[in-house]
Design brief:
Structural class: alpha/beta
CATH topology of the largest domain: D-Maltodextrin-Binding Protein, domain 2
Number of helices: 10
Strand content: 15-25%
Oligomer: single chain
Number of strands: 11
Order of helices and strands: HHHEEHEHEHEEEHEHEEHEH
Distance between the termini: 57 Å
Mean pLDDT: 87
Radius of gyration: 32 Å
CATH class of the largest domain: Alpha Beta
Number of domains: 2
Largest sheet: 7 strands, mixed
Low-confidence stretches: none
Length: 298
Amino acid sequence: MELRHLRCFLAVADELHFGRAAQRLAISQPPLTVAIQQLEAEVGAALFQRNSRGVRLTAAGAALLPRARSLLMSAASAVSDARAAADGHVGRLVVGFAGTMLYRGLPAMLRNFRAAHPRIRLSLREMNSSEQVIELQHDRLDAGFVHISRVPAGMDQILVSSQAFVACVPQDHPLAGAASLAPAELAGEPLALVARAVSPDYHERIVAVCSAAGFDPEPTHELRHWLSVVSVVSQGLAVALVPAALQQSGMAGVRFVPLTDGEAGLTRYETRCLWNPAQDQPALRLFLRAVQAVADAG
């Protein structure tokens, strides 16, 4: 059953006049008549009765009418969906993120993207940077917000933000009221930091900052999430060097103290959006444009 036959059938059913139906379809009447005859042959029954009083639907035609409308609407919807998918306006993306992105504008960016592209479904998966890289390499994520300084081979990136580290100390710590401090002032304190297995890059860099300040950060508390690091500090169990964005966490019992000017540049906490450029997804391209806009806005 051809869609053009159904369009001809609907035009005649609506107009109940072959001449007007032909004008509506912008064709001459003979091809219209042939199309109806071909459809009737396929159905195996007459669809219209024609006499001196005009044209009317037969029982078979009346039964076909709602189905024909539905079929044509479904076909039009399928074409529209296919075009929208080709343009990136329909689709599904799975996006990974590390927890600190909740304090670096990710929620607002996602709300804006969903408002602009309501037919693209976003599924979020919270995981650490190392896990995201593995998922990206196996095409189980479309994009990921990671905190690494070395981008794996085969991945493209957008540097979303770069922030300083600050000292995080318990609120009753002697340094809690300081205007700024140097990492050397944390010598002799138990240190909380992200585990090497979770974020080897930043684990090693924080240890290197301590070593450069002249002390070995032992004993240490190694944790899976930066919020866990801040929580351990809030319990008075340790001090830490954490990304500045965690000041927005609102966790009670801690104070965040800037590092001195000379020490603040020892390391930066960088957020990158990674993706596999081999993926040719129009929806992903739209998402990356939104990410780039956030990065450009600073």
